Amino acid sequence: MVLQFLIAGGGTVGSRMAVFLSHRGEKVTLIDSDADRCEWVSKHSDAVVYRGNALDPAILSQAEVSRADCLIVALANDQIGRELVRLAKSQFAVPKVIAVAKDSQGKERMQKLGAEFAICSEDAVLDEIKELLQAKSRRTLFSEREGRYRIEQVTVRATSAMLGKDASNLGNALAQVAGVVKGGNLLFPKAKMVLQLGDEVIVIGKESAVDRVCSQIEE
Predict the structure, then answer these.
(1) Which of 80, 108, 109, 110 shows the shortest CA–CA distance to 97?
(2) Which of 8, 14, 109, 194 is paired with 174 by a 20 to 30 Å CA distance?
(3) Does residue 133 have a pLDDT over 80?
(4) pLDDT exceeds cutoff 60 at 125
C-alpha cells in the first residue's frame, strides 16, 4: 500500500524527508516558497513540487491535502506552521500530522492544535516516519501469548529488495513463507513464484526469525 505524504517546507528536514520517502516508493508532494529548494527536490526525488505559500488554498487544493495520509510541517516560520496544523486537522481531516518546531514551547503549541507528533529533532521525525511506514506495510495475524511464535503479513513495496525475485529464496530454519496473496488470491509458495508490487507475503515461525524474513521484504 503506497502512502500519500504532503510536506510543507523544503529546508533541511523537508527535503530530506521528500528524498527518503520518494526513494521508498511513496507518493510525495512538497510545497515551498523558495525556487532553488523546489528545483533541488525535483532533481533529487520523484516528488511533485509546488512553489508558493503553504497556506494558499489553491496550492493546498492542487497538492491534494485532503487525500494525504500524513502531513509533515517543516516550515521556518512556526506561526505559519501552527496555522497549517490547525487547518489540516480542523478542515481537511488529515489522519496524521508530524510537525517540526523550533523549541519546546512551539512543540507544545503544535500538539495543542492537533499534531500527533511534534519535535525539534530532524532524526526523531525520520524515526516517526519509519514507524508509520512499517505499520502500514506489516500486519500481525497471530502472536503466541509468550511471544515465541508469530504470523506476519508483509507487503512487497516498490523499494523492496525482493521485488521481482523468487519467493522460495525467502525463509530460514526457524521461519518460512506460508503463502502469498496475489490479486486477492491466496497461493501456496512454490519454486519460481516471482514477487510483484503489492503482493502480501505471509510468514510464520519463531518471532525473531519472522522479523528477519519480513525485514528482507521491507528493505
Answers:
(1) 110
(2) 194
(3) no
(4) yes
Strand partners, 99: 73, 118
Helix pair 35-44, 12-23: axis angle to 10 deg: 20
Range of the domain at 14: 4-135
**Pair (112, 177) in one structural domain:** no
Lookup: cell for 204: 510464520
Question: d(Cα 154, Cα 88) in Å, to the nearest integer?
Answer: 30
Nearest-CA neighbor of 101 among 124, 128, 80, 74?
Answer: 74
The pairing of strands 27-32 and 4-8 is: parallel
Task: Answer with the one of 135, 167, 188 that is the final residue of a domain.
Answer: 135
CA-to-CA separations, 18 to 8, 14, 29, 35, 195, in angstroms, rounded: 10, 6, 8, 16, 27
pTM for the full predicted model:
0.61
